[in-house]
Design a protein that fits this description.
This protein has 315 residues and is of the alpha+beta class. The protein has three domains: 57 residues, Arc Repressor Mutant, subunit A (Orthogonal Bundle), CATH 1.10.10.10; 191 residues, BirA Bifunctional Protein, domain 2; 43 residues, SH3 type barrels (Roll). Helix content is 28%, strand content 29%. Strands 3-4-5-9-8-7-6 form a seven-stranded mixed beta sheet, sandwiched between helices. A hairpin with a 2-residue loop joins strand 1 and strand 2. Helix 5 packs across helix 7. It is elongated. Bound molecules: biotin (BTN).
Length: 315
């Protein structure tokens, strides 16, 4: 595995107890001392606090950066942008060009962050906005399970990594005490009878304040009372996503999802562009559709829509 020069320089600085000479950095990375200096200058511009003195360099502090070189073996698969319209845009191009599975497009901020049902996703600095490209060898009928799986992975990651107890609201909103912490948008293309890609876009409110645009939203910083580093969170999510991906479309995902949802056994209202359905959420069918029991006792399945907990007349 070859790492970029910046990854190599940062690795050496991070592992050293004190100052590392320009000579050592040059020898270990295979580039000239002038090139080392240029990389150091570039890193300083990117807010890495690197002290440069007569005897060499010392890393005093590093920002919570999402640059590709921060991701170790994943570096070639991370596509980092400062500002983008939406991470879904380059992710689609990458997926159509058959990029490696688990390629990730990540942006500090999005100018046209996309939410479900043609909504806008508030994407100011401090949040975590990324799209992962997946190439599951499954039929399009199983694709909803992969979406459920991705939501589950985020809930489990939040619990394990930060001790935050989150739950899923159908189909894939991540809530903490009924407040929206994260949302997920997926995009799929097929080729013949198989999925060619599923792109999962995640927007997680981390250190941003989402409440200006969305009264019911919450951020990790608001929940925990302190800032949260985004890079280890993204890494923990990707580790878990990749590790369990072989089972992402299994029947079992439905049962695992049911254990993490707060939608079931509640009165809900699901709104789509042309209808509103109300009822008790009694189950999830194998394709991920929500099963509602209506007031007259009949059951109806909803495959998509905006789900509100409660019997809401004017959502
Ligand atoms: C929702 O409406 O709840 C889904 C929000 C999904 C937002 C994420 S942020 C990263 C990716 N890029 C986008 O433009 N949208 C998704």
């Amino acid at each position: 595995m070859t790492f970029s020069k910046k990854a190599a320089i940062l690795g050496l600085l991070r592992n050293a107890p004190g100052i590392v000479s320009g000579e050592t950095l040059s020898r270990q990375t295979g580039i000239s001392r002038v090139s080392v200096w240029k990389h150091i200058r570039a890193l300083q511009t990117l807010k890495y606090a690197i002290e440069a003195g007569a005897t060499g360099y010392r890393l005093k502090n590093a920002p919570d950066a999402l640059f590709a070189w921060e991701f170790g073996r994943r570096e070639p698969r991370i596509h980092y942008y400062g500002t983008l319209d939406s991470t879904m845009t380059p992710a689609r191009k990458l997926a159509r060009a058959n990029c490696p599975a688990f390629s990730v497009v990540v942006a500090e901020q999005q100018t046209h962050g996309r939410g479900r049902l043609d909504r806008r996703w508030d994407s100011t600095k401090g949040g975590l906005y990324f799209t992962v490209v997946l190439h599951p060898r499954i039929s399009p009928l199983q694709s909803a399970r992969v979406n459920l799986y991705a939501g589950l992975v985020l809930v489990e990651t939040l619990q394990e990594h930060l001790g935050v107890a989150a739950a899923v609201k159908w189909p894939n909103d991540i809530l903490v005490e009924e407040h929206k912490l994260a949302g997920m948008l997926s995009e799929m293309e097929t080729e013949g009878d198989l999925v060619s890609f599923i792109n999962i876009g995640m927007g997680i409110n981390v250190n941003n304040d989402p409440t200006g645009n969305e009264f019911n939203a919450v951020s990790l910083k608001q929940i925990l009372g302190h800032s949260v580093a985004r890079k280890p969170l993204l890494e923990a999510f990707l580790d878990r996503l990749e590790a369990g991906f072989g089972q992402a479309a299994d029947d079992d995902v439905i049962a695992r999802w049911k254990a993490k949802t707060i939608t079931l056994n509640r009165q809900v209202t699901v709104v789509t562009h042309n209808r509103t359905v109300r009822g008790l959420a009694v189950g999830l069918d194998p394709s991920g559709a929500l099963v509602l029991q209506q007031a007259d006792g009949s059951t109806v399945m909803v495959t998509h829509g905006d789900c509100f907990h409660g019997d809401i007349t004017q959502p």
